[in-house]
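Researcher: I've been going back and forth with a colleague about how Beta-defensin-like domain-containing protein might be arranged in three dimensions. Neither of us has a model we trust, so I'd like an independent prediction. The organism is Pelusios castaneus, in case that matters for your notes. Sequence below.
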Amino acid sequence: LSLGQFLIMIYLFLFFVVVSNADFLDNITCRRNFGFCHSGACPFLTTRIGTCINGKINCCKRPRAR
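Model: Here is an independent structure prediction for Beta-defensin-like domain-containing protein. You can compare it with whatever you and your colleague have in mind.
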């Protein structure tokens, strides 16, 4: 195995790791916006602010206290 082939294998491995985790990038965005992932409609007194798991479930947020 030459160095070039080894580097290509590492590059492909890292590429597939990033692609496989792309479904959960919206989960991270939801959490950063102080939301939570919830299947089905958002609970009472919460607002839908996005999606989680690549659009499969809702990202909901509680209203902020004033």
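Researcher: What would you highlight for our discussion?
Model: I'd start with this: The longest strand covers residues 47-52. After that, consider the following. DSSP finds two helices and three strands in the chain.
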